[in-house]
Amino acid sequence: MIGRLRVLLLLLYPITHCFRCYNMTLTGDGAKWNTRTGLQFIECDDGCLFMV
């Protein structure tokens, strides 16, 4: 179901859509916001609690 939702989101969002993910890292500088541009939602999966 998550895969289908992602496909739907990818179809609805333009290429230039910017989204942010809350990246919780256990080492280094702790939690921080990362901004990504494009359709690659998979980029935001590693170490992220949620996307905005």
What does this structure look like?
This is Secreted protein. The chain is of the alpha+beta class and 52 residues long. It has one domain. It contains one helix and three strands, in the order αβββ. Strands 2-1-3 form a three-stranded antiparallel sheet, with no helix packed on it. A hairpin with a 6-residue loop joins strand 1 and strand 2.
Quick recap:
It contains 1 helix and 3 strands. The protein has 52 residues and is an alpha+beta fold.
**Unreliable spans:** 14-18, 24-28, 37-42, 44-52
Give me the number of helical elements.
1
* pLDDT averaged over residues: 52
Helical content band: 10-25%
Please, how many domains? 1
C-alpha Rg (nearest Å): 12 Å
Structural class: alpha+beta
Give the CA-CA distance, first to last residue: 19 Å
Specify the overall morphology.
elongated
Keywords: Signal
Protein name: Secreted protein
What are the salient characteristics of this protein?
52 residues, alpha+beta, 3-stranded antiparallel sheet, 21% helix, Secreted protein, signal
Topology, element by element:
Layout: H1 2-12, E1 18-24, E2 31-37, E3 48-51
Antiparallel strand pairs: 1-2, 1-3
